[in-house]
Every structure is written in C-alpha cells, then in structure tokens.
Design a protein that fits this description.
Elements lengths: L1 H14 L6 H34 E3 L23 E2 L2 E10 L2 E11 L4 E2 L5 H27 L8 H27 L5 H4 L1
Antiparallel strand pairs: 1-4, 2-5, 3-4
Helix pairs in contact: 1-2, 3-4
Length: 191
C-alpha cells in the first residue's frame, strides 16, 4: 500500500496537474516531501539496524558468548577482569492490525571488553551476567502477556513502567551476583 501511495504521489507531483488549485498543489507537494522524508528516515533506520545487528547478540538458548563476542578495547582503568554491556531491548511491531511486543536480552559486542587476557572462566562469568538479562526479559514478557491493554488508558506509560521494573530488578540481581561471587573471584559461588 505504501509503495502504491508513493507512486501515485510521485506521478501527481511530477506531472503537476493543471486542474489542481495552487493550494491543492502545495498540499500535494507537502505530502510528497513528507513521504520522501519518511523514506529517508526509514533508510537511515535500516542502516542503523544493520549496524546494530552486526554489533548485537540476541540471547539464544542454544548459543552463548564466545571470545569473539567481546570486541571493545578498554584503555582506561577498570577494577574488574571484564565488562559485559548487556541489557533488555524492547520494541513493537504492528502485524495485521495487532500490536506485537518483542522483549529481548541483547549483548553489545563493541561495548563489552576484557581488561586482562581472555579466559574461559571469565567468559563464563560474563555469560551468567547475560543470562540474568534474559531472565528479566522473560519476566517482562510474562508481565506484558498477562496485561489486558484494552483496559489501560496510557499503554505507553504502562509499557515504560514494566520496562523500568525489568531494568531495576535486573540491575539488583546483577549487583547481587557480583557481590556473591566477588566479581567472579569466588569460584564456588560462580555457578
């Protein structure tokens, strides 16, 4: 539908029909420019999405972090052996008039780093951090699935509230995990 509309607007704009009044012509011109703007925005978003896809791992049951998952080089001082940049990513899609929620645990390769040499032990510690993110993404998915959004006046505010809760709970559990394992030093509590 969008492509057909673009073609129609393009044809109308380019042919500059004589029957249109100056007002209607300006209106059509504004619509055409708006559509071009949307196309450029979509194109920019698509390029950003491709870049994100190369830099982002989505948590999967059958695959975990590997040495190559960690891409950043950290030049400053950091008190721990590694840093995992992982969070909950939330987005929606309109599918056939129905709003679908997507909540995913993501790992950002270009923001995650090892301070010291790589070790499988350190990578396992960082994997558990990523697993904690997935746990809270699942909890958020469950809370959203249980909500009857037809009875909620401000859907956006409710979704933001659920997202904020998921992030806050996740951060508390990440801190507890690092405290319990002494940031991975206590191998008995690592698992």
């Amino acid at each position: 539908r969008f492509k057909i509309f673009c073609h129609i607007c393009t044809l109308i704009y380019l042919s500059k029909p004589i029957l249109l009044s100056a007002f209607h012509f300006q209106l059509m011109k504004a619509i055409f420019i708006s559509i071009l703007f949307c196309v450029f925005i979509q194109s920019g978003y698509a390029q950003l999405s491709k870049k994100m896809a190369k830099d982002t791992l989505i948590w999967r049951q059958d695959s975990g972090l590997v040495k190559e998952s960690v891409k950043a080089k950290h030049a400053g001082s950091y008190p721990y052996a590694a840093f995992t940049a992982a969070t909950i990513f939330f987005h929606t899609k309109d599918k056939a008039g129905e709003l679908k929620f997507y909540v995913e645990a993501i790992f950002l390769k270009s923001k995650s780093f090892f301070m010291k040499e790589f070790s499988a032990y350190i990578l396992n510690h960082e994997q558990i951090h990523f697993d904690i993110v997935e746990l809270h993404a699942r909890k958020m998915r469950q809370r959203l699935a249980e909500k009857d959004f037809t009875k909620i006046n401000n859907v956006r505010a409710e979704i933001q509230k659920q997202y904020n809760k998921a992030i806050a709970d996740m951060n508390k559990e990440q801190e507890k995990y690092d405290k319990d394992t002494e940031h991975g030093i206590n191998s008995a509590k690592q698992q």
